[in-house]
Amino acid sequence: MKRTDPTDADVWLASREAGRDIDPLDPAVSQMHQRLEVAAQRFRDHPRMIANRAVQLETMLKEKGIDEHAPSIIETLCEVPGDRRYVESFSSLTQQYYNLRLEGLDKAKAIEALRKLEDPA
Questions:
Q1: How far apart are CA 96 and CA 23, in angstroms?
Q2: pLDDT digits (tens, 9 = 90+) for 38-67
Q3: CA–CA separation, 11 vs 24, rounded Å?
Q4: Which helix (H) or strand (E) is 88 found in, with range?
Q5: Side-chain-side CA neighbours of residue 29 (13 Å)
Q6: What is the pLDDT of residues 106-115, one digit of tens each?
Q7: What letter would DSSP give residue 85?
């Protein structure tokens, strides 16, 4: 999704996930909006940037034989900070997550490792 694209991030991501254009009033768009809003509250990034980064990570993982979809990636990475705001950006976290997954860690172990990086205590 380009910066100049007038489509809202939630509509774009829901449509992409469905494989077809979805009406903005579709419940899938509402769910995607909610997911992006949670992520935007936990990270410094705008929902459009979060959607773009999640799709980029989905593509990068797929190239390495790891099948994770962007909406799931958003939910997964929101688990790192829990309910509080994260110090780093979503973009930064996607790169760290990618590296951990390539090292062979599964989703749960990658999240655990990221939590330890954030809070080494």
A1: 34
A2: 999 998 889 999 999 999 999 999 999 999
A3: 6
A4: none
A5: 14
A6: 999 999 999 8
A7: P
CB under 8 A, 24+ apart: contacts of 59-67:
60/98, 61/98, 61/101, 64/101, 64/102, 66/101
**pLDDT given for residue 88 in this prediction:** 77
> Do 22 and 28 contact (CB within 8 A), yes or no?
yes
User: What distance in Å separates the CA atoms of residue 22 and residue 16, rounded to the nearest whole number?
Assistant: 9
Give the type of residue at 85.
R
Report the pLDDT value the prediction gives residue 27, as an integer from 0 to 100.
Answer: 96
Q: Is the C-alpha dihedral spanning 53, 69, 5, 46 positive or negative? A: negative
Dihedral sign computed on CA atoms, order 93, 98, 99, 104: positive
